[in-house]
Every structure is written in C-alpha cells, then in structure tokens.
Amino acid sequence: MGIIPQIIANSIIAGAIYALIALGFNLIYRTTKFFNLAHGALTVVGGYAMFFLYKELGWNVYASAVLAIVFAGFVGYILDKAIFRQLRLRKASQMVFLVASLGLLTVIQAIIAILFTSQFQTLANNSTESRVYTIAGGIITQTQAIILICGIVVLALLTLMLKKTMFGRAVNAVSDDEEVSKMVGIHTDKIIGWVFFIGSAIAGLSGILVGFDTGLEPTMGMHLLLKGVIAAIIGGVGTMHGAFAGAFLLGFAENFGVWQFSGEWKDAIAFIILIIFLLFRPQGIFKK
Amino acid sequence: MDKITKIIVGVIVVVVIIWGGYALMGKPAAGGTITIGFVGPLTGDAAVYGAEEKNAITLALKEINEAGGINGKTLAVVYEDGKCAGKDATTAAQKLISVDKVKVILGGTCSGETLAIAPIAEQNKVIVMSAFSSSPDITAAGDYIFRNSPSDLDVAKGYANYIVNKKGYKNVAILSENTEYGVGVRKVFVDEMNNLGGTVTTDEMFKQGERDFRGMIAKIKAANPQAVFVNPQAGATGGTAIKQIREAGITAPIFSTYTFGGEDGIKAAGTAANDVVFFDVVGLSGEKGKALLDKYVPIYGNIAGNTFDVGARYDTVFIIAGALKQCGEDSECMKDYLYAMGNYDGVLGSYKFDANGDVVGIEPMTVKIIKDGKIEELK
Fold first, then answer.
1. ipTM of the assembly?
2. Contact: B247, A141; criterion CB under 8 Å
3. CB 3.0–4.6 Å: which of A136, A217, B235, B337 could bond B265 by disulfide?
4. Predicted confidence (pLDDT) per residue in B7-49, tens digit
5. What is the dihedral of CA B4, B9, B12, B13, to 10 degrees?
6. Which fold has domain B153-281?
7. Is the peptide bond before A138 cis (omega within 30 degrees of 0)?
8. Is residue A287 part of a domain?
9. Assigned CATH for B34-150+286-360
C-alpha cells in the first residue's frame, strides 16, 4: 500500500485542527485588530471543562461538550469585558493588548494546572478501541473525522453568519472601522463581546477535539495557538476562507515535510513557511 | 617544673598511654581484620540508596564473617559519605585510601561519585566496585574500576538483543524522543541492531513533548516492520505515539522502555497499550534475589530506594570477599582475579566482568507486558 494516501489523510487531519484554531483566532483578530494570545488558553479551558464534566462528573458526552463550549465562550466574553474592553477604553496600544493577552494565557494555564495538575489527560474513552475508517487507502479515526466535519461546519456557519445576518454585517462594520460603526449606531462593545464569545467557543471546541484525539495538557494552548496563528497569517489575516486554506497548506507542508525529511523537522517547517510568506507574500494567500 | 609544664607533660603522657594502648589493643585485632571502604550518599536526597547499600553490606558482612571471614580474618567496612557529589566522594576516597589504607572501595552509588573516585583509585591501585552507577563513561574509567550495574548503553543493547534474538524480529522501526536519554538509547539500539544483523526499517525522532506522530507513523507503516520500538522520554509521548501507531493500523508488536511503562503512558495509550512489551529495570525476582529480600525486609523494612541496588551491592561484598581470599590485600592480583573470575552466581543472577570492568550476563532489564491496563512480568 502506498504511503501517499496516509500522508494526505494526516495532512487533512492536522489541517482541520489548525483551521479550527485559526478560524476563532481570525474572527477575533479581524474585529479587534490585536493578536489575542489568550485564545490559546481558551482551547485549554474548553478541553478541561469537558474533562471535568465528561470524565470526572461522568456526564453525557453531548451535554458535556455543549456546556464546555459555552463555558469557553463565556470565559472569552468575560475576558473581553473585564480586561480588553478596559484597555480599549483607555486607547491602549497594540503592544499593551498583546502583553495583556500573553499574561492571560500564562495565568489561565497556571490556574488549570493547579486545578487539574500538569499531568497528561485524555478525553477519549480508552477502554474501547477507537473506530477507524479507511478512505482511499488512508486511515482516519472517528475522532479525526469529527474534527474535519467540525472544521467545515464552523467555516460554513461563520461565513454564512458574516455574510447573511444583521449581526454579521455589524461585525464586518466594526472590523472595517470601529469609530464609524459607533457613529452609525452600532453597539460596538456588545458586538465585540459576542465576537469574543463565538471565537472563544470555537477555541473551546478545538480544545475538546484535541483532547479526544491526542490528549490534554495545561500548556498545550501555546502550541496550538502558534499553529493557528501561522495558518491565519499564511492564509491572509482576517479572512475566514484564508485561515481555512492556510491551515490546510500548513498541515500538508508539515506532513509532507515529515515524510521527506524527519519528524523533528515538523515545527521548523511550519516556521519556515511562515517566514517565506512574511517575506514574499505578507498579505497571505487571500488578501482581505 | 611550673604548673603549666606539668599539665602539658601530663596531657602528653595521657595521650601516649591512650595511643599506645590503642595501638597494642588494635594490633592483634588488625592482624585478624581486613578493612575495606565504602563511599556512597549517607546524607542528602540520595541518602536512601546509600543507606540501603550500607544495610546490604551489613547483611553480607555478617554472613561472610559467620562463615569464617577471609581465611580466618574478619572483614570490616569503613563507611564514608560521598553525598552523591564528586567533590565529597573524592574527599571520602582520599581519607579511606590514605588513613584507613583500604585496597577496596565499595562505591560510589551515584555515577558522579564513581567517576570522581576513579582517577584517585587508579593512581593508588585501589579497586572500586560500584553497584548502582550506570553512566556509560564509567566503562572507560580505569582498570581498577568495576561495577555490576549495567551501563545505560548495555541496557539499550539488551533491548535490541531481546527483540532480534529472543523474538526473532529482524526488521524493526524505532521512534525516539529527541532528548539526551532518548538519543543515547537510540544510538546504541540502532548500532546493536546492525551488529545483530537486523535492519532498522525506519529511524524517526520527534521533538520533546510531541503529540502528532502520524507523519512518522505513516513512514513506519510504509516500511512494514516486524516490530516497532518506541523510545520516549516520558509516558505521555510514548503512550500517545503507541495509540496513534495502533490507530494507523499497524499490528506489528510494539516494544518500549520503562520511561513509557508507567501510569501516564498506559493512560495515554488506552487500549493500544494492550500487549505492549516494555523493558523495565531489573529487580530481585530470581530465587536468590527473593531469599535476600526475605532476609533484608524483616530487619530493615521495605526497600524504598531500589531493589536492584540492594541486590547488586550485596553481591559485590561476596565478590570482593572471593578476591580477598585469593589474593589477600594485593590489589593488582585482585584486579586480575576479578577480570578472570568467570561467572559469579549471585542474587542478581549469573554474571561476570568484561575487559572494561562492566558487568556481563545480567539481564539488564525485566521484560514486562501490559494486559488490560495492568502490568505483568513476561516470562
């Protein structure tokens, strides 16, 4: 059996995870114009909320997932109201936002580590074997199929929301110009709060899926975030389909790199691609 | 004579009398005693190992002396604290060599101690016999330096040997974590595979803490190995890798090391952990080993440090006693004796020393298998 189908399958799976992170990150970025590093922490919040409800309390998987996603969204919403909104009111610089979000990432990871220990956890029900599908010679697990479906659904819903709904138009307006939006009567703080909620909920969903696929650690947020950010940048910061395309490009580059070179090169390949894009096509694949 | 002079003379007289008396009383005893030294951590974090080695020595000494000692002489040990540090071990060894005139040092416990003692011992032709130092550097530490603790290198050779010779898998893939330990094991494993006529079908390394092994696993699968050797630094990486190996549909047997075989690793691997064989450090599972534990535990309680260490140290006292019986305190003769003594049948099993003073013949590991999330010893 050839190796190519499996490499392609792996690339798609990796791409789907990066896409979910990049979509949430991008949604917040295009609206607020700052690099929200705390986004990584919200994957951890979602993952561990799921761990608590599903594994420790033994709740139903769907109920746990919904609640964990809402909880992650809610934490994001609170972070906006309690911290980022205050910074906006003070007209803080981009740098202040960046540092504040980095601080939040660190604090949230530390709190999670205190509550749940730094030990590696997994959400998967490991007492039964995971279901596996073979598609054109490539194997993917049930969890991975769900990740892929989630990625596509989230992209579709986000695109629909932004293009077709009043709320989406308001988000676009705030993204284009917050001040003008305010003048025409859009309640920008409310819109941004909702954007944080939705973006963070997507991050929470990613965290849950990663928890099922590979496992949870309090420090996993930074790693996931970096890949999501790279995907967003190479895809074209601010565009939803760009983030999606960037994520899959990254997934393919990494996996084909691992195939051609060696496993240790995976992260290096991701950053080399980032640098190439920054040098030669800083606007990304799709220009906003 | 004034008062002060009287006091001084008085003190001198007392000292001379005590010294003389000590010498007179000591002399006949010295004729009947052979003193050897011990260096190991008796204080500090590693003290548990030093203390347990001391217990093992005490047990062995009692048995040797009750059975007639060394050709009628009593064997005695002077204990010095090496504190698991090269500096303190050096001081301790110098004291033992120059003050106690020992020809044998049992120690050190930590590799750092043994490596620090080695040059001094070489210079003074003093036998060093470690029971717990596993650093590969000790192999080349000198002619007088012996140990019955397998080198980290030998342990990894043992992995390859088990997989190729005992299991008959010639085509093996290796997946290693890129850490000092992982890289060290990988190098030895791959070299040994080649020596044994095996083939390393895929030799992949992943960065520390990696969670996505699928690309590497696809390569492993494409090469279709008979077995996969997972060489991680920790349970989380090892377990996740093993889970993904099984998910990828690789059904070949998986081997791993004690770095995987803990609670974390089994949790991360889930059902994929089933039937994974891993190499744990050796214990005292043999008949003689169990007999030692039966003697040791009632006196000193359960072993908190390391059972291998206790057994290895216990054996060394008997090995040294054998050398002393043959050679007296002629350390050059003892050295040659140790190199040529052939197999020693001790609590660790049957083993001897190679030309580097490293141990040969100890199964450097206990082979274990995971069944339904439980660890079982594999016979």
1. 0.83
2. yes
3. B235
4. 777 777 777 777 766 655 544 444 589 999 999 998 877 788 8
5. -140
6. Rossmann fold (3.40.50)
7. no
8. no
9. 3.40.50.2300
